[in-house]
Each structure stands twice: as structure tokens, then as C-alpha cells.
Amino acid sequence: MAPTTARQELTARLDLPGNIADLRRRWHVGRKLAHGLPPYEEVMLGDLGLAAEHIILITERDGVRTILRAGRSVPEWLGREAFGTPVSSLAPDCALALSTVSDSAIKLGAPYLAQTHCARDGLVQSYELFAMPLANRWGSPIIAVYVGTHGARYSLVEAIFRSTEEGVIALATIRDQDKRPIDFQVVDLNVGAAQLLQQPIETLRWRRLSDGSHAFNSALVFGRLKKIVETGKRETFEVTLGSAANEICLNVSLTAMGDLICAALTDVTELKQRELSSRLLFDNNPMPMWIFDTQTRDFLSVNDAAISHYGYGRAEFMAMRTDDLWPADEAELHLRALQDLSDVYQSSRSWRHIRKDRSEIEVLTFGRRIKSGDHDAFLVAVVDITERKRAEARVTYLAHHDALTNLPNRVLYREYLSERMASQRANEFTAVLAIDLDLFKNVNDSFGHPVGDRLLQMVAGRLRGSLGQGNLIARLGGDEFAIILNSIASPDEAAQISGRLIEALKLPYTIDGFEIVIGASIGVALAPLDGENADELLKNADMALYRAKSDGRGTYHFFERAMDRQAQKRRSMEADLRKALAAGELEVHYQPQVDLQCNRVKSFECLLRWRRPNGLIPPSEFIPVAEATGLIGPIGEWVLRTACTEAVSWPSDIGVAVNLSSVQFRDRNLVGTVVSALANSGLDPQRLELEITESVLLAETDANLLTLHRLKDLGIRISMDDFGTGYSSLSYLRSFPFDKIKIDRSFVKDIVERPDCVAIIRAISALGVSLGIRTTAEGVETAEQLACVRREGCSEVQGYLFSPARPAAELSSLIEAIDGKSRKVA
After folding, report:
1. CA distances from 516 to 439, 498, 521, 698 (A)
2. How many angstroms separate the CA atoms of 35 and 609, rounded?
3. I need a labelling partner for 57 at 20 to 30 A (CA). Which of 311, 493, 527, 660 fits?
4. Taking the alpha carbons of 718, 723, 729, 730 in that order, is the dihedral positive or negative?
């Protein structure tokens, strides 16, 4: 099964740290207004975008904390549905994390950010928990906890832990708000580790080291753990535990993979006891041991365990030298170590030995100088760590490969690309292909994630089969793949390969009797032309991929420098747009919609304008940015409230039309937002008209239809905007009783010269009459166009012939100019 769902991968691309920053900003803005804990309504109501799916609401009554609400993504962490559930009844790791951040937030009276870890089905995932204390007018404060994934998942293969007699412990680093390591948490351990630490597995698992009463809760261990987290370099040391009469000595080897630490424990107690007591229980020792002459390196004695472990007979062993156990490529290192021997030796590294059957084992060696008869000798004890090394290698492999497809993951992909670019010759190209699957989300939604996982495995197989040796294929997450093409001769070769991959991936896939068809879009960046380092090349390939998807998908696109400039401009606009609402730079203008039957203003459509020091920015430039970043939520809510408030001062028979983006429909509190705007303004719901495009119905049709019905039940009018430009407008008229159809301006523009435009408008008008739906012709700019649409039966018109969009202050005179003196203007 894939380590992450498609929904989670989408969320991961939405900049979770940005969600936390936005929530922190909301909390502080609410606090300034409240002069204390900000009210729940100020922070949590309104548009939170996809962040709402990651939020848990907790309240406390009679000392018991209970979950009031959990977003749709939260059960993935909790491992269960949690509505109305006491926090204490959750899984211990989740309960501890929620209790800790809740206590800290309440104690500080301010937001509190912490990190926790969760293991599900052998996968460990880091989470960031951001807790906000909020005032609750009905009782004790509410704690809103945002739960976001942090970093990549690590797979801990249970079989590895359980298959070795050595002790293995997986530890996760606990960091404070300044990202400093302050503690370590036992993520998992095997039976051997529990036995060595002399405590049950259930007692140790998920406990912080600082909470334990075992040998790992010591300044020595904490110091070594913090050092390896900071340096990433392997650490080996010894610890003792137990009473003096039952003292156990452990050799501890630490390996770090980011914040995940693998601690391997080896019991070297018996060796230490022999050293201290000088009583060499040699022959019956279960550890392989021998004595050799330091001058000739001949074996002088060997115990039964060594004979059994290495497979040689005693006579064979005694006829050998230590050199015979060394692989040829390590012989010089062994000799150098022997030359540097002191009186006591303890491995600072592992060594490879060869057994009689020529198999290799990896060992740690311990020894001390002794006198054996007339020989200057050395006593050696061997600990076989082959299984432990295999376990460590497996964990390392899983940290660099995708568990579902066995392809390299993002970490290994970036390391390989950096090495490749550093070694690239001047006369060759390296190409980076960023691949995104088209229509993959539909597969997950229609057939379920198990089918989606198998499809990803089949895609990985096709990619392998379509490329030659020497090229790297990686899965970056979700439906994102990437390829590094080594030593290509020209950009044309990269183009040919990209085209071949697109053709291969769009062929049908058969899974469980279903024929599934998807596609792929590819962005291509070339080194050294498009980037001097791995990060720049990856970024530019992603920008090229974005262009390929914008061009209609199912194609490839090379990176162009103009894309980078466009991306920088877009990032700058996004930053400015975040400040525009608070700075008062956004304005609502209104364009009249005129009733052709009485030649009077029927309603005004509100249109958003952004006024900058250098002039107005067209909505076509900043609205897509607002939709892509989630800013359309708060901006759309502000527009709705402003339009309702201003419409109250107009004549009572004039309505106001507000456009709703498909992004706004992702907020399941949309109906509540509209109701709030109407209640605060006092506007009659029948005077409010909400305009949508068919994109609202293309995504989550059932849910969005339900929202539209709820709005219509309030008395609000719903209109279909840009009618006739989509794919299935007629089917939508059947699925929802719209109050109005707005005929797109593209048909009106050429109505005087093109009979086909006349026929389309006539058909739409007749359709509206048959269904009892009003029709509005947009973009009427000339008297000839007005005459045509009137003749073809349109109910209303809108366009520059009557007026462009005007500020609210000018509407009184505009109504009077259009209606004449027949209407008393409020």
C-alpha cells in the first residue's frame, strides 16, 4: 500500500508551514480585537481553505478534554474517527501529544508549536501540532490544534527488528520550538532490546527517554544522541545497567537518518567481566574467541564457539594465521590495526571475516594483550554483527526508496542529481524530467486507493521498460515521478524520450478487469543550460511541468527563462495580494444588469478591482493567484459582505449579483458565511444572486449541488455564468433549477456579423423560456447588439453600452441615468 494517499500528497504541496503562519496571523489579529484570548468565531469562522481539514477542536469540562470536531485528514493521524471522543481514550502517542500542546497553549495563553511522531502499520510519520487557545462565550476555552505532516515517512520493517537476536531500538528526536533536540522517544524496539534494558516492550515503546528508569536515561546516552543528530556521524559507546551483582555492559552503536536514530545494542558483559576478574572462561565461552601470536600472527588457541561459527576444524584453525580470515581488500587495514595495538583493543569499526564456506561475516572485535606461555599474545573475542548490519542496511534502503514502487525517493534522487552535475563533462547534457500523471485523482476517487497503488506500480514498471540502463527513475510522492537522463547528446534526444514516455504511459492499464486510461505531462530542464545546481534544475523542471499542464496536459514542455521571470512575478503578486485586503487596496465596483422589458436596472453585478500605486490590476491577473493560494476565501467573503452591506442602501427592487469561485465551494462553511453576510447587512435573501461557472459542478458534484440547494432554500437566486462555453452546460440545467442563464460575451461580440451566434443566442433564450429561467446577454457594447439580443428574446443585458463597472458612490446617478425619472432613487 502506498505510504501516502493522493489527498495527503496534495495537502503536502499546499505549504503546510504557510497554513501555520496564516493561523498564527489570524490568532494575533483576533487577539488585538479582543484584548485577551481571541474569540473562536474570529479565528475559526471564515475561509480556512484545506487547513480546516487538519484542525481538531478540543474543549474541557469537569477536567475531561473532549474532541468537538476533527477535520477529514485528522483520522489518518488518530487512527480512528474522533467526534465526541475524550482525548484520554485516544492512542497513547496521540493522547500524549494533544495533551502536551493543549496544556502548553493554555498555560502560555498563546499559540504553541510542537512536533510529534506517529507509527501506523510500520510507518513512522512526523507531525507538527499547532495549538491555539480561543475564547468560548459558552464556557471554558476551546483549543484548536492544527495537525500537519512534517517531512517524509520512515518505514520500520517489523521483520528486521524481530529477526535478529541483537537489540535494536528506533528513536525519534523530540525538538522544541527552536528546533533544538530536547528529548528522544522510543518509536519501536525488538525483544532483544527489551531484554537487554530489562523492561517489557509495552513499557518502553512510545516513552520518552527522560521518563524511563533504564540505562538509556543518562547524561552519557543523551549526549551521544544529540551529537549524532547534529553531526549525522555514527557513534559507538558502552553503557552499564543493573546492580553491582547483576551488572550488564552494553555496546551501543548509533546510526542516524535525519531525526530517526537506529540504536543497536550488543551485550558485551561477559567480555567485560573477564577483563575485570581476569578469569578467562575461554573454552566454554559462547562468543568466538582465540589467542594469536602478535609476532607471527599464528593461532595459539581457539575456542569451540569460533570453530562452530567459522566452520573450520580445530586442527585446521591451529594451522592457520589470522591473515587467512581477512578478505584481500582489507588485509592492509588489518595489518595496520595490529601494528597499532595497545594493551587493550576495542573495535572502533567493524571488520569483515571469511568463513570456511567462503561466506563473509561482519564482526566487532575486542581483545587484550596477554602472556601465553612464552608468546607475546593477544586474546580476541568476536561479536558477529552481520544480521544487525543487514537490518541497518535495510532501514537505510527504506529511507532512500519508495516503499510502494521500490524506486529511489526524493532524497536519493537529489543526492544522485547533485553527484551527476558535479561530474558532468563539458560536451554532454543531463536532462531532468518532472512527470505528473493526468487523471490519477479520478482513478483514486472512482476505484479506491488500492487500485491507485497498483496503477502506480504499473506506471513505475512502464517507466523502467521505456528507458535504458544508466538513467535514474524516482517517485517523488503521490503521482509525481522524476527521471534523470545521463549523457544525452542534445535537447532533441530529451524531447524524443519525453514523447515516447507520454505515449507509453497513456496506453490502457488493466486492473481487476477494469481498463484504466490516464496520461502524463512532463517538464524538461537541461544541465548546464537551465541550472547550475540540483535545486535550481529541479525547480526549473517543475516550472516546465506546470506549463505543460497549463497547455492542456498530455504533452511535454522545456524550461524557458521567461517561466522563471513569470514565477517570480507571480510570487511577488502573491505576497502583495496577502497584504492588499488589510491595506484597503481592494475595491468592489458594480456593473448594471438592465431588464429589457421595462428598460430599468434589475440588479448590479459586483466586480473586484485591485488598485495599486501604478494603477488597477486586471482581475484576470490576480484572481487566479488568489484561487491558487487560497486567498480567494477571505477575499471572497469580504466581497460578499461588502456587496450585501452596500446593496441595502439601493432601491428595494434592485438586487446584487456576486461571483463565487469553485475554490470557495471547498469551504464546507460556505452556507454559513452567506447567512452571516445577509444577517449582518440586513439584506433580503431574495435580492442576493450568486453566480457560478460549471467548474463548480465539475468538482465534487454531489457535495456542491447540495450546497447550491441549501443556498436556494434560503431564497437566494442562483445563476449559471459563461453559459455555452463549457462541456456539459445542458446537463447542469437538468441537475439544478437555476434562476438565470448568463450568455457568454463571446457569442454577443459577433452577433451582428455571424448567423451562428444569432442561432445560439436564440436557442439559449428559447431554452430559458421553456425552463422558466431568465437569460442575460453579457458584453453588449453597441446599439446593434442590443437590438439583436432583444429580438432573440433575452430577458436582461449587461455591458459597456449601459455602463462599465462603477464604484458604489456613483450608482445613484447611474440608476437615475438609465431609468430616467420614473424611479425614486434611494
Report:
1. 10, 21, 17, 20
2. 33
3. 660
4. positive
d(CA 113, CA 24): 10
Residues 6+ apart with CB under 8 A from 133: 37, 105, 106, 109, 110, 111, 141, 142, 143
Distance from first CA to last CA of the chain, Å, rounded? 65
Closest CA to 446 of 6, 4, 1: 6
Q: Are 304 and 387 in contact (CB under 8 A)?
A: no
C-alpha cell at 255: 546510526
**How confident is the model at residue 3, as a pLDDT?**
43
Q: Sort 602 into a burial class: Cβ within 10 Å, 0-12 / 13-18 / 19+.
A: buried
| Angle formed by the axes of helices 561-583 and 534-550, nearest 10° | 80
Max avg pLDDT among 11-25, 165-179, 486-500, 587-601: 587-601
Q: How far is CA 271 from CA 164, 365, 382, 655, in A?
A: 21, 11, 10, 90
pLDDT in tens, 524-568: 998 888 887 888 888 889 888 888 887 778 888 888 765 546 656
| Main-chain phi, psi angles of 202, to 5 degrees | -65, -30
> What is the dihedral sign for C-alpha 451, 456, 458, 459?
positive
Query: What residue type is 29 in one-letter code?
Result: V
- How far apart CA 456 and CA 433 sit, in angstroms, is 17
Positive/negative CA dihedral, 81, 87, 93, 94: positive
H helices present in 234-360, as ranges: 269-277, 304-310, 314-318, 331-339
481-504 per-position pLDDT tens digit: 999 998 787 888 888 899 999 999
